[in-house]
């Protein structure tokens, strides 16, 4: 998990830049079954994402979405980054 945590600032920056932080928090908090489904889709499609993804971001994101504790920790990180906490 520590390796994945190192990517969180990059992900938070991306979400903020594209105005997707709120949507990501909704997915992480309220739509857990969808997050797990999305993680499985990421695992299956990581071959296709390899061309646009660097440093294992897709696999790391799928891992975060798959684990409830990690997803909650990432949601808390996003809230802190957005100044909500």
In short:
The chain has helices at residues 2-5, 8-17, 21-30, 32-49, 57-66, 68-81.
Molecular structure report:
It is a single chain. The protein is an all-alpha fold and 85 residues long. The protein has helices at 2-5, 8-17, 21-30, 32-49, 57-66, 68-81. Helix 3 (21-30) runs antiparallel to helix 6, helix 4 runs antiparallel to helix 5 and helix 5 (57-66) crosses helix 6 (68-81). The chain is globular and about 35 Å long. The mean pLDDT is 84.
Structural domain tally: 1
Q: Tell how many strands the DSSP assignment holds.
A: 0
Task: Give me the secondary-structure category.
Answer: mainly alpha
Low-pLDDT stretches: none
What keywords describe this structure?
85 residues; mainly alpha; 78% helix
Please outline the helices and strands.
Layout: H1 2-5, H2 8-17, H3 21-30, H4 32-49, H5 57-66, H6 68-81
Helix pairs in contact: 3-6, 4-5, 5-6
């Amino acid at each position: 998990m520590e390796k994945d945590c190192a990517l969180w600032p990059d992900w938070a920056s991306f979400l903020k830049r594209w105005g997707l932080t709120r949507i990501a928090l909704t997915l992480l908090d309220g739509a857990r079954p969808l997050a797990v489904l999305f993680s499985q889709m990421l695992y299956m499609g990581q071959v296709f994402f390899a061309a646009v993804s660097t440093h294992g971001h897709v696999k790391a994101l799928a891992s975060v979405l798959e684990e409830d504790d990690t997803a909650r920790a990432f949601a808390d990180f996003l809230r802190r980054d957005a100044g909500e906490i």
